Model the fold of this input.
Amino acid sequence: MSKKMNVESFNLDHTTVQAPYLRLADKKTGEHGDTIYKYDLRICQPNAEHMEMPALHSLEHLMAELARNHSDRVIDISPMGCQTGFYVSLLNDGDYQSALQLIEATLQDVLQANEVPACNPVQCGWAASHSLAGAQELARKMLDKRQEWETVFKDGSN
Done:
């Protein structure tokens, strides 16, 4: 990686990180003073494992809906194309501990869910591709390793 790229995650050495983790990936302040904090919520180890699409898709729906029960600062929760995690964007909330608590509470809610929100052809562009059980398995996997979320790199740093 000799040339700096425009996309923050393209500048991250994916061979040095150790999933699962939550890291502040970017921070942008607008001309009126509002700040967007973008977190990298890594669930799977890059280039070693990935989330299957039905589980990822359902986890996206569940987290996007349920996170807003805990915070009105959630802008978006979007899956990474590599299928190893999500970006969580928060407005004017750069407190890392607060972001950790939001993710933990949301994943706990995922475990209690009885259905995937908006899992129908009217509200979803690929309603046939969902797995509540798969999403819950991913949430359980993350929660089981909660103590590891604050360590981003294999060398133990964050």
Q: What stands out?
A: The chain has a mean pLDDT of 96. Residues 96-112 form the longest helix (17 residues). The radius of gyration is 16 Å.
